[in-house]
């Protein structure tokens, strides 16, 4: 989820990490083993005068399968569940309105299951898990981009 946001105007920082669980400072191995209740997520710091929150949510929808509650593409498990963590009432309203619009669009045959939850403590992932797409371009292309690209082409072509 870093790459789609990382180079956009108004994005100051994108950090990979874990949130929404019950363990302080979880490790990747603990999260992956489903021991902590955390979701793998990205924390995005942005300039709202350049990049609106509405646009960030729109970009998010184009990077996930909002109908798959137990993972994303090749990444399976509750730690990969689709969720938007919101910081306050205004972000919640924007995210909920956007989710409702997507659900009403008829784009998907199955219900939109993406949750919208309040922000929780965020723990940055270990150094080797930061900027994965840059550090491991071939592995990223094979593992991450392949499934996502196929999904995007099949579900979002109409808009482009």
From TrEMBL:
Q: Signal peptide position in this chain?
A: none
> What are the recorded GO MF terms, alphabetically?
L-methionine:thioredoxin-disulfide S-oxidoreductase activity; peptide-methionine (S)-S-oxide reductase activity
The family database entries (InterPro entries) matched by this protein are listed as: Met_Sox_Rdtase_MsrA_dom, Met_Sox_Rdtase_MsrA_sf
Asked if Membrane is a keyword of the record, the answer is: no
Q: Which UniProt keywords apply?
A: Oxidoreductase
Identify the residues that the record assigns to the Peptide methionine sulphoxide reductase MsrA domain, covering every copy. 2-141
EC class of the enzyme, as a word: oxidoreductase
Question: What Gene3D superfamilies does its record include?
Answer: Peptide methionine sulphoxide reductase MsrA (3.30.1060.10)
One matching Pfam family? PMSR
**Oxidoreductase in keyword set:** yes
What reaction(s) does this enzyme catalyze?
A: L-methionyl-[protein] + [thioredoxin]-disulfide + H2O = L-methionyl-(S)-S-oxide-[protein] + [thioredoxin]-dithiol; [thioredoxin]-disulfide + L-methionine + H2O = L-methionine (S)-S-oxide + [thioredoxin]-dithiol
Please state the Enzyme Commission number of this protein. Answer: 1.8.4.11
Q: Which family does it belong to?
A: Belongs to the MsrA Met sulfoxide reductase family.
UniProt xrefs under PANTHER family: PEPTIDE METHIONINE SULFOXIDE REDUCTASE, PEPTIDE METHIONINE SULFOXIDE REDUCTASE MSRA 2
* NCBIfam families recorded: msrA
Instruction: Fetch the HAMAP family from UniProt.
Output: MsrA (MF_01401)
Q: What does this protein do?
A: Has an important function as a repair enzyme for proteins that have been inactivated by oxidation. Catalyzes the reversible oxidation-reduction of methionine sulfoxide in proteins to methionine.
Descriptive protein name? Peptide methionine sulfoxide reductase MsrA
